[in-house]
Structures are given as structure tokens and as C-alpha cells.
Design goal:
The chain is mainly α. The chain has helices at about 5-25, 30-40, 40-50, 50-75, 85-95, 100-115, 120-125, 130-135, 140, 145-170, 175-199. It is elongated, with a radius of gyration of 19 Å. The termini are far apart.
Length: about 200
């Protein structure tokens, strides 16, 4: 029987893989090129993770959990959890120039997961549900029932991801119009809140 992988070393490699994918994207890195950048052999990565798909799945699970924690911590740091603050926190994270590589990787993996759902099941299971869960933190303040809030969260998520693609496509020239778009999304949230309170 072969020696089991060193879990501490595996975690170190996973952190390094996440850092590299956030810099250069998913498609740009073959297993060989990724190993070269990390200063290890492709076989070392396969030894610890089993396959390229398993490596990338683990990497994006870690990226997702870190992003969710940052967003949730930001939302919960406010004295009152308001849906407009949820939008602001999400867009602050998604539009950060330092996250462009991560955003590129996110969309690359999303497309890949449609072709290989068996290898990216965890990614697909969380790519929408994590956002819905964060939006539900604002339920009490917003005054909408669960389905209405989930519907609003779906509209906002679609808009945010469209604007993420806009930033990737057009760069900083997209910022003025995406900033205005964020204000429209917050206005929608305010309008729905006011309507719910009137009822």
C-alpha cells in the first residue's frame, strides 16, 4: 500500500493553487503548467489530489468558502441587516480589481461544470444557493416572504453576474454604468420593502 498523502502539505499546495488560479485563471493552466508555477511535478499534484478535476474542484470549493465568509462577515458586521447592504457588500467583493482573476476563473469553471457536472457537483450545488442564503439574512428587515425574497435575490444575482462579465469584457470603462446599475438594484429593493410595509 502506498504512503497516504500528507494533509498539511496538501493544504499548502491547495492554497498555492488557489492563489495561482486567482492570478491567471482556470483555462490558462494545464496540470503541467500549474505544477511548474508551483515548483512541483504534475505527479506530486496527482498524488495529493487524485486527478486534475479533483484538484480544481477542491480549489474552487476553497475559493467559494472564503468568498462566502468574507461576504457573510461583511453583512453581519452591520448593526441592521438590510438588503441594500447585502447588494453593496456583494458588489464590493465582486468588483474589486484584485478579484478579476478569481472572477475569470469562476466563469471558466462554471462553463466547465456544465460539461462535467460529475466533477464539479459541489460547485454547482452552491453556485446559487450560497447567494440565496446570504440574501435571506435580510429577511426580517425587508419584510418579504421567503419566495419573494428568493425571487429578488435571483434578480440581483443575475444582474451582479452580468456586471461581472461587463467588467471582465470592458475593464474600468464599465465602472460608471455598473455603479448606476447598483443604484437601480438598491432602488428595486427599497421599493419592494416599502410595498411590503404598506401591505
Amino acid at each position: 500500500m502506498g504512503r497516504p498523502p500528507n494533509l498539511e502539505r496538501k493544504d499548502e499546495l491547495l492554497d498555492a493553487v488557489v492563489d495561482e488560479l486567482q492570478r491567471s485563471g482556470f483555462i490558462a493552466n494545464s496540470l503541467r503548467s500549474l505544477a511548474h508555477k508551483l515548483g512541483v511535478t504534475p505527479n506530486a499534484l496527482l498524488y495529493h489530489f487524485g486527478s486534475k478535476a479533483a484538484l480544481y474542484s477542491d480549489a474552487f470549493s476553497l475559493m467559494r468558502s472564503r468568498e462566502v465568509k468574507r461576504l457573510t462577515d461583511s453583512i453581519l458586521s452591520k448593526p441592521v441587516i438590510d438588503f441594500e447592504q447585502v447588494i453593496d457588500s456583494a458588489w464590493s467583493e465582486f468588483s474589486n480589481p484584485r478579484m478579476r482573476g478569481s472572477t475569470l476563473s469562476f466563469f471558466e469553471v462554471w462553463v466547465t461544470s456544465f460539461r462535467e457536472p460529475e466533477n464539479y457537483r459541489e460547485f454547482l450545488d452552491h453556485v446559487v444557493s450560497d447567494w440565496i442564503s446570504m440574501a435571506m439574512l435580510a429577511k426580517e428587515n425587508l419584510g418579504l416572504d421567503d419566495l419573494e425574497l428568493q425571487g429578488l435575490a435571483t434578480v440581483v444575482l443575475g444582474a451582479l453576474r452580468g456586471m461581472m462579465l461587463d467588467l471582465l469584457t470592458c475593464g474600468d470603462e464599465a465602472i460608471p454604468r455598473t455603479d448606476v446599475a447598483i443604484q437601480h438594484l438598491k432602488l428595486l429593493a427599497r421599493t419592494l420593502k416599502r410595498t411590503a410595509n404598506d401591505d
